[in-house]
Each structure stands twice: as C-alpha cells, then as structure tokens.
Amino acid sequence: MRKLVLSVHLYAALITGVFIMILGVTGSIMAFEDQIDHVTHRHLFFVTPQARPLSLAELATAAVRRFPGEKAAFFGLSASPDLSSYVAFSSGNVYVDPYTGEVLGVRSGPTWLSYVHQFHLRLSAGDTGKKIVSWVGVVMLFLLLSGLYLWWPVKRATIKWDAAPKRLWFDVHSAVGIFSLVFLLLLTVTGIVIGFESVSTPFFFSITHSEPLRANFRATARPGVVRLTPDQAVDAARAAMPGATPIAVNVPGPTGVYRVALRYPEDLTPGGRSRVFVDPYGGAILQVESSRTTAAGTRMVNANRAIHTGDIYGLPSKAVMSIASLTAALQVFSGVMLWWKRR
Question: What is d(CA 244, CA 99) in angstroms, rounded to the nearest whole number?
C-alpha cells in the first residue's frame, strides 16, 4: 500500500506540478494585491487627509476633463482617509484626490496584477482554465493527505543542512510539508469550494435552509419626480445601513437602480460584503443586504472566500496565506529535486 500511495503521489505531483507552482506563486501575490498596487503606483493612491472630502459631483467634474464628452459610470470611494477615489468612464478610470479634486492619473486597461489575478483564477483561459484549476485543487488535496500518510512512519520535521543532496531535499520536503499542512489544507479546501461553486453554493443554502437575496430591480421614471444624484443615493444607503462605510456606487442607466457597496469595520474584504439598492426616482430603498444579517448560505460563501484570500483577520492572516501559497510551490520544487536525485 505504501509503495502504491508513493507512486500515485509522485506521478500526480509530476503531472500537476506546474499548475500547483503557478497557483502558489500567483496566490502569494494576490494575498497582497491591493497593497502591492498601492506601493507600486503611489502617485495614484496616496493623498493627504483634510477636513472635508468633496462631493461625488465635484469629483466627476474634475475627472471628466480627462475624457471630455463621456459620462461617469461608477465611483470608487476612498476606503481610507489617506487613499484616493476614482471615477470610472468607458475609456478608463480617473484617480482623484477626494479633498482637492486634483487628478492624480488615469488607468486604462488591465494591469499586471489583473493578469496575475486571472491567471490564478482560470490560467487566463476562460472556463476551460477554471476547470483545470478546480481539478488541480482536488489533486492537491490528495497530495496533501497522501503526503501526511507517507510522512507519518518517518515523522521527520527537521532539516540536516550539511547532508547529502538527496537527504537534504527529503528533509526540506518533509519539514516544510508538515509545518504548512494545516494552512495548505485550508487554502486547498476553500479553493475547491470556490472552484466548484455551482455545486458548493447551492449546498450551503440547502444545509442552512436559506435563500439568496435577489436583486433584479428595474426603475421607472415618474412625472414630476427628480432623479437622485449619486451623492443622494450614497446618503440614502448610509442612512439605511448605519455603521457601514460606502465604498462604491454605480451610475445607473434610465431603467437601472443605484447599487451602493458598503463595508462594516469588521469586514476586511476590500470589496465589502454589504449593499443597498436605491430607486433613483424617489430614493426608495429597494433592498438592504448586510454582511451581518444576510442569508446564512451567503455568510458561509463569504467566510469561505475570506479564509481563502486571507482577508478574514486582515494583514496577519494575509501574510500567513501568502507564505502558505509559496510553500505549495516549494513543495513541488523540493519534491521534483528529491525525485531527480533518487533517479
């Protein structure tokens, strides 16, 4: 049995090793995606906090000078007093100092971090790439469990640095594997849940006997009713969800509604998990979905993603998951080196 498990473990790793290394390296980067973007493009993001931020209308007036004739489609609001806001147009995003209205720069098209993100999710190969990534996750789960089975009789957890290469790589593979096992299992299982979300998400709602909230709203203009501005929609959402900070709002078309994204202090996910839908004709609140009180199935989906990305406890958990992702790549490399030295 041990020989059989070892053979399957070896060849499964050799076949999927490249994909695991890709997921490990890209996942390590993605854990700090926003922080890396802020540091590498400081001129777009960092501002000096002042007493009063400008209104969204004032930000749009400043930003539209970069794309004359276009209309603002979306506002990304400052998530921190020292960070900029941005106004999205069809031609790109204009980053603006929310206190002075100074245009800090324009970003059009995907960034290198966007490519890293897509490579991690689907190898930049659409649905086919996503299926490959999902099944690689299943193989990785087998590698972790079979690795524990193979490690157990030896129980080696130290590295003899002056040993012969074969022994050295065996020690590295064993020690790194056992110390990172719990975190790699968390990454792998949560990643599989995300990869097979068409099955896992309905399962979460089924076991919690809950239903996802639907948001298929259409607005109808009414005579004599003045259309709300984005500023008014944000104010209405803030009043509907006290304690949450608005972080984004769309600019809907004639039949669309305002969707205001918000974030509570304990929600450390950059995009937030709360939202308020506002009727642009009259300001009626159509739906409030709070991360604190939303459907139990939705909370399970959100928690799974927060664990996978490391958002659940902020920077400390991000650091742990980032390092764990790198250990996955290291395990592939050390395993291949061990196999090669044995040959």
Answer: 21
Q: What's the pLDDT score for residue 222?
A: 87
Two tokens, residue 319: 């650091």
Angle between helices 197-208 and 165-195 (to 10 degrees): 60
Q: 202-213 burial, b for 16+ CB within 10 Å, e for fewer?
A: eebbeeeebeee
**Number of neighbours of residue 184 by Cβ within 10 angstroms:** 24
DSSP β-bridge partners for residue 259 = 277
Residues contacting residue 310 through CB under 8 Å, at least 6 positions apart:
31, 317, 318, 319, 320, 321, 322
pLDDT tens string 53-88: 999 999 999 999 999 999 999 999 988 999 999 999
pLDDT digits (tens, 9 = 90+) for 319-330: 999 999 999 999
**CA dist., res. 278 & res. 234, Å (int):** 9
- Reported as half-sphere exposure (CB side, CA atoms, 13 A), residue 56 has a value of 25
Residue located via tokens 């076991």: 207
What's the rounded Cα separation, in Å, for the pair 322 and 317?
8
- Rounded CA Rg of the chain: 24
b/e per residue 20-47 (b: at least 16 CB within 10 A): bbbbbbbbbbbbbbeeebbeebeebbeb
In the sheet with 258-263, reading across from the earlier edge strand, the strands are 103-107, 92-96, 85-89, 74-76, 245-250, 258-263, 274-278, 285-289
Query: What tens digit of pLDDT does each residue of 148-167 get?
Result: 999 999 898 999 999 898 89
Ramachandran bin of 272, using left for φ above 0, alpha for ψ from -120 to 50, beta for the remaining angles = left
> Higher model confidence: residue 29 or residue 272?
29
Cα–Cα distance, 202 to 105 (Å, whole number): 42
Cα three-residue angle 297-304-177, rounded to 5 degrees: 150
